[in-house]
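dumping these here so i dont lose them again. two proteins, back to back, each one seq then structure tokens. dont judge the mess
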Amino acid sequence: MKFVETPLKDVYVVEPKVFGDSRGFFMETWNEETFQVAGFDLKFVQDNHSRSAHGILRGLHFQMEHTQGKLVRVTSGEVFDVAVDLRRSSPTLGQWFGVSLNAENHRMLWVPPGFAHGFYVTSDYADFIYKCTDIYHPASEQSLAWNDPTVGIEWPVPPGEEPQLSDKDAQGLNWNDAPRFD
């Protein structure tokens, strides 16, 4: 696996080796030893799978308790995946990074604890798989507004369209009101 640094401190694009031929392909998506050698000492406690239709935007989610690191990937379709740094002590506090994840490029994104995370579906639908370092704790989940002007994420939403949001995400916090991690 190749671990590619991003402009955000501690966020990495992970590019697995893909072995393919006319019959299909094989790739390893998680190997504890490979990640440890690369400097990541991770323990995953929960795997999740969501399917979303075109134009759905999920996020930007974070949990103040049971803070989750996430290793995310797409097994069908395509998303524009985004992480926003919410760590007070980070040199990249308030900055965002986005990357296209799809079934063809096989890339994954490592989003450590202390970040808001979300994605926008650019294909007809997308299957989104992610491993989490802590349990889902709905009582402490919050959302950062997807369109906060201070953060300024450049989502690939077509002109004249609005993404489809859950009620919770439609009421996301603006940057000035969102809590920070130490």
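---- next one ----
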Amino acid sequence: MSGTLNKVMLIGNLGGDPEVRNFEFSKIVRFSIATSESYTNREGQRVEQTEWHNIVVSKKGLSDVCEQYLRKGMKVYIEGKIRTRSWQDSSGQQRQMTEINCLEMTMLSASTDRSQALSSSADFFPKKENRQFENDDLPF
């Protein structure tokens, strides 16, 4: 195979409310999600292992949805690419961070105010006359 692929798919829970940074023509939303797996070790004890993933959303429209609707503890599906960035901190040490550049996001938790979410989500999609969203027909 001659091609390469950089694709990540995660389902996890937000560790905190998203942090938003607004710039002149764009916005970046950052949050972390936890994924967990459990297994039984050789001694018969149940062990749970949790991984934390740093998520970065800069895609126009998607960053607005993340800012408006995501909250700590919500379960989300994230699809994106792994990115590693390096920088030098104020003390001169080289730092490195691995992040997930989010390209798609689906909320899997029930929204606290579903009616507000449904009415606001219509702004992101083409308008159709008499279009009604059912509770399980969320467009995001």
